[in-house]
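Pyrroline-5-carboxylate reductase, pasting as requested.
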Amino acid sequence: MASTITFIGAGNMAGAIIGGMIESGFAPNDVIATSPSDDVLAPLRERLGIRTETDNAAAVAESDVVVLAVKPQIMREVCEQMRDAVQARRPLIVSVAAGLPAETLEAWLGGELPLVRCMPNTPALVGAGAAGLYANARVDEDQRRLATELMEAVGLVEWVEDEALLDAVTAVSGSAPAYFFLMFEAMEEAGVKLGLPADTARRLAMQTALGAAKMALSSDKPPAELKRNVMSPGGTTERAIAHLEDAELRRIMGEAMTACADRAAEMADELGQR
Ligand SMILES: NC(=O)C1=CN([C@@H]2O[C@H](COP(=O)(O)OP(=O)(O)OC[C@H]3O[C@@H](n4cnc5c(N)ncnc54)[C@H](O)[C@@H]3O)[C@@H](O)[C@H]2O)C=CC1
Ligand SMILES: O=C(O)[C@@H]1CCC=N1
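Structure tokens follow.
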């Protein structure tokens, strides 16, 4: 039996997951997206053929899975407003919100609910997402499979058994597309300084990132060895890599990712304790 999956919130993340789901063959009629504004919903409805609803509780009343995809800052209010509908239906809850703990979300929704916390990323839109998932003790095997199926429709799924590790997942994949986009910006700017047209530099940098990722994923060699294979002794790459190592790229990445994970934990404190 097909499950009805409702997305509460229809912004960047929900749009990316829904787009990937439809692309991978989920029936548009089984998917509902909600938002207070029909202006947000209309393009999704028209582009993807999914159902939409401005009333969260009405959508929940016919759902088997409810994906919480609003900003963490308004999550409490949104959960409390649909608490009765959730308790009447008891669907599987999947939260994609950064930071917010499973226990807090479950309490805001009235308690005793199967809940999966998921940290996805926006490349889900092109079927190349990477998500970390954590299930609370009420999630049964079928629900675990359903959550896996939902997120595998848009990319890689890795389960973690310790909820705190989702902060690490946020640093490694949730926020990480932005690190690579920053790298693209920097490479394009440098390419232009070296004389290339901007669009040429951009295309070359992006294709190279795609190639490097595909190659690393399909190789049994570790990245360090693949890197060494590009570095001819006394050649150009060696010079570039030495510069990046001297500039302590590893330390900078470590600090940025620690800041990211710390912020996820901080958000849980800020938002969960109200
Ligand atoms: N953007 C990203 O790369 C990632 C975001 N997330 C998480 O996804 C969640 C959503 O983030 P974004 O999609 O970036 O935000 P967004 O601002 O693009 O989307 C939020 C959506 O919620 C809707 N909304 C506002 N009030 C509502 C209400 N009362 N009922 C229903 N919908 C309502 C808005 O219309 C908007 O469409 C956040 O909790 C964030 O932590 C997680 C991983 C990656
Ligand atoms: O920046 C954020 O808070 C969200 C969560 C992970 C990616 N975007």
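Note for the archive: Residues 98, 170, 174-175 surround A1CAB (ligand 2) (CB under 6 Å).
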